[in-house]
Design goal:
Helix content: 40-55%
Oligomer: single chain
Strand order of the largest sheet: 6-5-8-9
Structural class: alpha/beta
Order of helices and strands: EHEEHEEHEHEHHEHEHHHHEHEHHHH
Largest sheet: 4 strands, parallel
Length: 433
């Protein structure tokens, strides 16, 4: 069962699951098992990366997000479009078109998350100068932060002590709207347009959040497309704009390039991120200034809740950024300054995974049993047992969730042994007769 203290966007639809093990083999946290022909998620280890949602051929894994109709719970509604939203539209002339379409759908205001990304970049740029824990690790991807909290807790001091752009955008959007319209903050709802389930899960992570709802890009894409042909009003054209660097956060490496430092490493794909975090943990990359890890391949443009193909979206965004850079060369945008008020309310803490035992001696004993059991398996990590690896099967056996005979090779050995015993017994009876 899910940990009651942790909300998860990724859910399993049992009626659609056929037990094919595709999700099991792709999960970076090894938190999926297949038992009795159905998958199950060990939520203590889940980071809501969405790989199972993206790879399930039967749509048995889904990401729960809010509906567009949920915005009407609030008297005043603000849209927070992720930069990756712009990459969904081909031949997009300006972000103004998307912003205008959002207003036409019923939002009272729009605050670009890309603008908040500019603020975060300016703040992190200053943090790098005096950072004693190299490299400084981006806190922008909530799936990567969850990964660090579970598997790499010793690296938490390296994680940038700043709010994510969506949180900065939500707070500032409400403050600006409240001041401009004389509206109480509690009557304002801020809704993030998300490319992935991890961002949905992060607003329910037990920390204070100014985001009131999360809408999947693929759920709102069609509605936006129907509004895109309408003329953009002057008040949208004259708004305060995000820079092309802020919009470029949607692409893999965009955050790192916005910092202006050369000694930066950007990695996409959660499996690749894990490999690099292991290098950092082992002290092999302490000469780096900054590490940007993106759970999704291609960055946020490759999220599991986007509409457009990752590579097409990347090309769409590239063209938009070219137009933005040309515009900004003639109409310079005021650079954002570092802000002290966008730091975390409290430092990140380790997230408890699966406990072998509350008793230390018993936990150590179980660890030894797991090591011993693992050596008895073939080490093929075939997944036929319903576990992603031979070690995870050993862990499940020790925890009482599986049997040695779940391994088809162990089962084959047992059957062959029983068959030999039956033959020997038959021969013995024949000789006696």
């Amino acid at each position: 069962m899910p940990n009651k203290k942790i909300y998860h966007s990724v859910k399993l639809q049992h009626d659609k699951c056929v037990g094919c093990t595709t999700c099991l083999k792709n999960c970076p946290m090894e938190c999926i098992r297949v038992r009795n022909g159905k998958a199950r998620i060990i939520y203590e280890l889940c980071i809501d990366c969405g790989l199972c949602v993206k790879n399930c051929p039967y749509q048995a894994k889904v990401a729960q997000t809010d509906s567009i109709t949920d915005i009407f719970r609030f008297e005043h509604k603000i849209a927070l479009p992720a930069p990756s939203l712009y990459g969904q539209f081909r031949n997009l002339q300006s972000a103004d078109n998307v912003i205008s379409a959002l207003l036409n759908l019923g939002f009272d205001d729009v605050f670009e998350v890309a603008r908040a990304a500019d603020m975060v970049s300016a703040t992190v740029r200053e943090m790098i100068k005096d950072n004693p824990n190299k490299p400084l690790i981006s806190s922008a991807c909530p799936a990567v932060v969850s990964l660090i909290r579970i598997r790499f807790p010793e690296l938490l001091p390296h994680v940038a002590d700043v709010l994510s752009p969506k949180e900065v955008a939500a707070r500032m959007a409400k403050e600006e709207y409240s001041k401009a319209h004389g509206v109480p903050m509690e009557k304002i709802g801020a809704f993030f347009i998300t490319p992935c389930p991890a961002k949905m899960a992060s607003i329910h992570a037990g920390r204070e959040s100014h985001v009131d709802g999360v809408i999947a890009i693929r759920d709102i894409y069609g509605l936006l497309t129907s509004q895109m042909k309408q003329e953009v009003p002057e008040n949208v054209k004259n708004r305060k704009r995000a820079s092309w660097r802020g919009v470029n956060w949607a692409s893999f490496g965009g955050e790192g390039s916005a910092l202006g430092y050369s000694n930066v490493l950007s990695v996409d794909g959660i499996h690749n991120v894990i490999c690099v975090l292991e290098e950092i943990e082992n002290g092999r990359l302490d000469d780096l200034d900054f590490f940007e890890g993106s759970s999704c391949e291609g960055g946020c443009l490759g999220g599991s809740l986007v509409f457009e193909n990752t590579y097409v979206a990347k090309n769409n965004l590239r063209k938009l950024i070219e137009r933005m850079r040309s515009y900004e060369s003639e109409h310079p945008i005021e650079s954002e300054q570092p802000r002290d008020d966008i730091h975390l309310y409290a430092p990140y803490e380790p997230r408890e995974g699966i406990k072998l035992s509350d008793n230390i001696s018993e936990a150590i004993e179980k660890m030894e049993r797991i090591k011993t059991l693992t050596k008895t398996f073939p080490g093929l990590d075939c997944g036929s047992c319903g576990c992603p690896t031979c070690r995870s099967l050993a862990e499940d056996i020790v925890q009482g969730r599986a049997s040695e005979l779940d391994c088809i090779f162990k089962l084959k050995e047992r059957i062959e042994k029983l068959a030999k015993q039956m033959v020997d017994l038959t021969n013995l009876q024949g000789n006696q007769n």
